[in-house]
Amino acid sequence: MKKTLRKIISLVLTAGMALSCAAFAGCGGGSGAKIKIGIGLYQDQGPAVTATREFLKGISEELNCEFTYVTLSQTDEAANKTAAQQLISSGCKGLILTMDSATEAILEECEKAGVYLGGYLADYETSFDKVKDNPNFVGTVVDGRYSGTAWGEEIAERIINDGYKNIGMIKFPSFAFPHQNEMDAAFRAKIEEYNKTAADDEKITVQAETTELMFQPLSADYFSANPNIDAIFGMCAGVDFIYPTLTQNNKTNIKLYTAGFSVDDSVLNNFGTSGNGCFQELVFSNVEAIVYPLVMLLNKIEGKEFEDTPSEAQRVDSSQIRITNNEELDIVKEKSMYYTGKFENSFLTASEVSDLLAKNGGTHEGLVKVVQSMSMEDLKAR
Amino acid sequence: MQEAILKNKSNSQSGFWGIIKTHIFDIFSVMGLVLCVIIFTVTSAGNLWNAYNISILIETVCGYMILSLGALFVYSMGFMDVSVGVQLGVYSILMIFILNSTGSMLLAFVTVLVLALLCGAFNGAVAVWLGLPSIVTSLFLMFVFGGIQYILIERTGSNMISVENYDISRFADSKIMITVMLVVGIVVFYAFNFTKLGKYTKSIGANEKTAAQCGVNTTLWKVIAYMMFGVCVAIASVFLLARTGSAGKGTGSTYAMDIMLCIILGGMPLSGGMSSKVRCAVIGTLTYVLLSNGLTLSGVDIQTIHIIKAVIFLCIVLLTCRNKGKILPR
Amino acid sequence: MWLITALCGADNFVSPIIMRQVLTEGSLTAIIALAIYLQFKNGRFDFSGGATMILTAIIAGNVTYNAGGNVFMFLGLCIAVGVILSLITSIIYSFSRVPVIICTIAVTLVYEAITYLIFEAKGLNIISYDISKFGKIPFIFIPLIIAILFFLFYSNFTVEGKRGKLLSMGQRSAVSIGISEKKNVIACYFVTGIILGLGALVYGSQNIISPQSNLSTSSILFSYIVPVFIGMFLGKASVDAVGIAVASVGMAIMNSGLDCLGVGGGGVQQIIFGIFMLGFYAFSGQFEKLKSLFMRKTLKNTI
Q1: Cα–Cα nearest to B261, from B294, B291, B231
Q2: Measured distance CA(B263)–CA(B276) in Å, rounded
Q3: Would you say A64 and A35 are in contact if contact means Cβ atoms under 8 Å apart?
Q4: Which CATH number is correct for C16-216, 3.40.640.10, 1.10.4100.10, 3.30.70.1060, 1.10.3470.10?
Q5: Spatial separation of the C-alpha atoms in residues B61 and B289, rounded to whole Å
Q6: Does B253 touch chain A (CB under 8 A)?
Q7: What is the pTM of this model?
């Protein structure tokens, strides 16, 4: 009896295994004439992922595209190459990747397979100069601005206007995020310029040496080493790496100007003048910026390029949404696809994206203008 | 009475069904692999077998297979090595440094080989001499190598470094990978089944005290087993580097757990002992790589992939790793 | 650590903020280390502790938040869900007859995968809310004390706890004299579930939790196993639970000290941690030899 039961259990488990695979299987690549594009995201969940997928789903019919997703590894280049290879093997004609990891090796694979590669919210800092002349690389759209100088100056201006006097500086390690050094330098230069003409009691003190977070949350000893700070310029992802430490140590009276965004109420209810008012600035990039690599890929795949296509691949800045007060936050909650996760809130309709294609009369200049016209002002104007 | 019992026993083990009964778990592990192949052939609409995908599979399998074959010697003793991932990362970075400054692959390989052998010796010997559980030396190497990897990359001033002065992609050729896998496989098969190394490591896993009392120098054979693994780690690091030509602060970090999963999927008991087999590493590696590849080709959603892999893993271990007997296995 | 930081010129080590961090970090470490140690003590190496804790925190935290519950509801749910998940692990282990490491690895993969399937894969973020009170001083001591009490009660005052010691020292003999191993496993996992639930309560109150995959929760196991080994040695002088608690606070002191010296979080900290760990284990492994050597010398001198 026991043996029979074991055999039955084995069969049931085997059948269950087979059924679960079959039940969750997709089309497996046999989808007719649709162009298959592989998307490699740096996370497998979160509002950015949801919004990106919704946007691409919304435009897929119009563009006659089908999208396949993989999650890239933040640490393992071989895994990322495997993911890219699997996308190619599954029939993808173009790849859009959010990470500069094993890029040269991936491009070699793309060349062999006749597939094209574009970047999304990645500046390709390490490999751009090596790959920009590669005919299979169509360029990349950066996560905001390539140079960190402008944002550094903007935050400095805000802090001067908001009246905070002791500023903490926190960023990720230089080797991983070199542009944060530019933000840091620009911020300090602006403050120094202000201090030259400010009265003694109006001068702003900036933390002498910027604290580098080794990809771990801020340690509590930061507050004993910097006891008097009243605001922090967090060039790193402050929502995940700085705010939890502020909360645990009852330091939410310190104002946080940081990059990143969260749809969580625990963040948004403490923004500006709400709740503990810790968050004073949040910034995020629009998911619609993916149209840059997507359109460039489709042009290549369909064999029709822009008349003004640059001779080498470009690294294009995109506009970001900077939230600086509660009114702007309300606008984001109402109108931004990043927050709502709904295609109807997208900056671009499906037909507008289609019009950007070379075959429909689009130009490279027009495409760049579109990805650079998605700022807070543009959101307000919608 | 005893004769009757023996006769009964030998009757039950002879014949076709007797063989099936004796090797039931091995059969299940092979069936698991075959089932994966069949299911994914269907769900990927045949993409599993296109030439390009075969080359990807060979590339992916190569590193895992070499590591799994080397890990057999360690796991058959009932030990595990959690530092293998960070070791791979550091060896990749060191090879890049040496290749970029000297252009000599031989020097790069010999350097990492020596380091890997030293780590193997450390893992095997120091634990015994200091009276520590083997996991402790492995953890020590994991922390130290992890720190070294981080510092090396930090010093370069960049997120990752690439090979500049040498065409390492020649090692990414499928023929070379298959040849190396076959050579390593044959050497490991021979060493594991026909030499003292294999016999003694299995007996250490079965019962270390008994093995020692039978005259086996358990310390010596532990060291040799770990060094054998070290050789395989050094070889695997070459092919890992050849795949991408670059390394960063997290390169290789997941391999320690991946190797454990490969071996478990092949039906290898983690307590080691006499039922350790080379085919566990082979079948387990193929199943593991095929699972990831097949699910992606089948268009399974990225969030659903995790649960499917977990359920399949659970099913396979329930079928292949069950123990008989009165006491619960540990 | 104070001496080292003082000699290196870091004068912010002895401060209320650092002490607060030490106690907060040490309390969480102690609770998780107790859960790992309880299984260790009963002869099992359980891989699934981290995944159980993460999944418990996500379920209990989100249900509490969505229901508008309070901190006690969070506590109750954490314990309930922790117990349920641990019991599922124990049932799978007892009835599948698969070796415990393999079984718990499989369970870990399943629990990690579930974190993607529930609550829209958002994980848990309740650190700014009132329900995260148990993650802060002084309330953090409540789950710590409950965890220690349950551990001590189970280990020293229950029949199953004592049977667990017999099973770990001689499994075959213990089963032969009639001890029901399955019953013992379930009882042990029940108590582990309570402790992991308390760990989930504190962990979820202090951290933003994302869904996990590919055995990433095993890093929790490997991080917290160090205080377990140290605590086992320290506990020989008194009670093992006290040893674990002391070891946990000690590790927190070391981490905070390294942060003050400016080497926190980077490669140097990992290397120092590894060397310290090996040095301590080497000392504890040779302790009996050193002790007998010392006593022999003392005896010689006396004679």
Answers
A1: B291
A2: 10
A3: yes
A4: 1.10.3470.10
A5: 6
A6: yes
A7: 0.86
Amino acid at A13: L
- Give the pLDDT band (50/70/90) at residue A25: very low
Interface membership of A10 toward B (CB under 8 Å)? yes
Give the SS3 label for residue A347: coil
Q: Which two tokens stand for residue A190?
A: 């602006």
Chains contacting chain C through 3 or more C-beta pairs under 8 A: A, B
Three-state SS for B87?
Answer: helix
**Cis peptide leading into residue C138 (ω within 30°):** yes
The Cα–Cα gap between B159 and C182 comes to: 50
Residues 26-55 of B with CB under 8 A from A: 28, 31, 35, 39-40, 42-45, 47, 50, 52-53
Domains, chain A, ranges and CATH?
Answer: 35-146+286-319+346-374 (3.40.50.2300), 149-285 (3.40.50.2300)
d(CA B184, CA C70): 60
Q: Which domains does chain B have, with CATH numbers?
A: 59-297+304-320 (1.10.3470)
Distance CA C49, CA C220 (A): 8
Distance of alpha carbon B160 from alpha carbon B245, whole angstroms: 10
Cα dihedral C81→C83→C89→C91 (10° resolution)? -120
DSSP 8-class letter at B88: H
pLDDT tens readout for residues C50-109: 999 999 999 999 999 999 889 999 999 999 999 999 999 999 999 888 888 889 999 999
For A262, which residue in chain C has the nearest alpha carbon?
C125
